[in-house]
Amino acid sequence: MKNIIGWALAAFGVIGFGVEIDNLLKGTADHTVTGFIIAALFILGGLALIRSARRAKLPPELREAPIVVRPSLGARDIERAVLACAKQHGGRVTIAEVAAGSQLSFTEAKEVLEELSRAGACTVDVTENGAFIYEFNGLMPREPARAALDP
């Protein structure tokens, strides 16, 4: 029921905006600002009811879950987190590994890895399954000096 009333209020607010814009175009606007404010209140009230109805459908444990606010990281801290994750995985990581091993979301991890690839810090290899593997040559295990010299 809240959902229906919410949509009705939002629609009524949109119609109110249309009426006020029409009044402005005709030049018969006496209380246009008041009309816009009332229309905006109807829209916001309707959207609040719609949101409330959707939250009510969620299971109780999700409905009352606290909102977790992550501390914002600077660009330098983000790069360090990605490089630390790559070092931990032997210099080869996927986007999912970086996201799981850091505070970054999957999308953020993808953007950072693509940026590092464009900067030349790593290379990208694509597996048969289509997964992107980012290789940081400077973080990969080194061969012993003797083995590297032998033909």
Structure, described:
By secondary structure, this protein is mainly alpha-helical. The protein is built from seven helices and three strands. The protein has helices spanning 2-26, 32-57, 60-63, 75-88, 95-101, 106-118, 145-149; strands at 92-93, 123-126, 132-135. A hairpin with a 5-residue loop joins β2 and β3 (132-135). α5 (95-101) packs across α6 (106-118). The longest helix has 26 residues, at 32-57. The protein starts with a helix and ends with a helix.
In a few lines, what is going on in this structure?
The chain is mainly α. It has seven helices and three strands. The protein has helices spanning 2-26, 32-57, 60-63, 75-88, 95-101, 106-118, 145-149; strands at 92-93, 123-126, 132-135.
- The helix-and-strand class reads mainly alpha
Which geometry do the CA atoms define? elongated
Specify the biggest β-sheet: 3 strands, antiparallel
Order of helices and strands: HHHHEHHEEH
Q: Mean pLDDT, nearest integer?
A: 84
Total strands: the figure is: 3
Share of residues in helices? 55-70%
Q: How much strand?
A: 5-15%
| Rg from Cα | 27 Å
N-to-C CA distance? 78 Å
The count of helical stretches stands at 7
Low-confidence stretches: none
| Spatial order of the strands forming the largest sheet | 1-3-2
